[in-house]
Amino acid sequence: MNLLEVIRTTVTDMNIVSAITSTLFIIMLGYFCRKKGIFNDQVGKILSKVVLTVALPALAFNAFMQDIDERTLSEGINILIWGLAIYIILIVLTKPMYMKFKGDQQDTLRILTIFGSTTFFGIPIVGAIYGAEGVLYASIFNIGYRIFLYSYGYIKMSGLKMETRNIKEMFLNPIVLATFAGLFIWMFQSYIPQVTVSTEAGVASQVAFLRIDQTAVWLHKPLTYLAGLASPLAWLAIGATLGSVDFKSAMTNKVSWFYSFNKIIMVPSINIVLLLLLNFVGIMPLSGVLLGTVVIMMATPTATVCAAYAISFDKDAVLASNASLLSTLSAVILIPIWIIIINTIGQIFAF
């Protein structure tokens, strides 16, 4: 199969096309509703809070309600390791990347480049493209993100030592709690007390009693409904946010454009090159889902927490706001292209 045939197959795959169009259309709907006054200036914040405190924790937990096998366990460990390693790599690489900038401006650009909106922006898209397996990998990948965001990111932007409230935010927010709870059940389900359940085919099988998808369907079902809210509500919130800001200032800021290029194009490209290299030398075997999950998570725009750091600690807040807007707009346009590129790479290398 030649390259053109691979690309044609990718762009005509209805699962991929429908996931892309769903993302774009619902973001556009949120933008339209905000511009027409259907949504007020608080709707984006409210929807974001619902997604982060209710929908995404349910989505993360439910993703782990599946059988474990050697392949998924191996890839889960690989993506956990990569999720820690890539932030160390980016901490090093962003120094020469922004060498011509000095002081607060350099610090802000580096932190905004290292940390994207993986939770709010990335996971819903990963879920739409790759389903529960993608969300599982994305949730594991985000463990390293949380550790570095609330430690290195905070210290670099504040100039202070680590605070207790950041440690609490790192480990005690609903998404992290749901991720660790689900991860524990998934990894140790063979060692957790077992109960007998009947499958749809009427065959009895032994499962861990905490596998609520089989032992407590009455509890799993409402979590499934809540998890289903994550993507559409997140996309509506993104559209509503874009509809409430002034583009003119951001569009004329060359530094913000440079940052957006690095964040949405360079960072995912670095991940692809390094992961393919590790795959070829046999250190970290790849699958299409693993590669796609990492690239989508790393092609996300400015993390809200990083923008908040810049504003709170007066580290070039205007630049952070402009960069956040431009990178969000760039990500909305380019992530569909990244999805096509990832799928094409997967078919070429038979992942």
Helix content: over 70%
The best one-word shape is: globular
- Unreliable parts: none
Radius of gyration: 20 Å
Number of helices: 16
The helix-strand sequence is HHHHHHHHEEHHHHHHHH
Overall number of domains? 1
What's the pLDDT, averaged over the residues?
86
How many β-strand stretches? 2
Percent of residues in beta strands: under 5%
* Major pleated sheet: 2 strands, antiparallel
Q: Record the strand order, biggest sheet.
A: 1-2
Quote the CATH topology.
Answer: Na+/H+ antiporter like fold
Distance between the termini: 14 Å
Structural class: mainly alpha
Q: Which CATH class applies here? A: Mainly Alpha
What multimeric state do the chains show? single chain
Describe it.
The protein is mainly alpha-helical and 351 residues long. Helix content is 77%, strand content 3%. It has 16 helices and 2 strands. The chain has helices at residues 3-11, 14-35, 43-63, 70-97, 103-114, 118-158, 164-172, 174-187, 212-215, 217-228, 230-242, 247-251, 254-280, 288-298, 304-312, 317-348; strands at residues 194-198, 204-208. Strands 1-2 form a two-stranded antiparallel sheet. Strand 1 and strand 2 form a beta hairpin. The protein starts with a helix and ends with a helix.
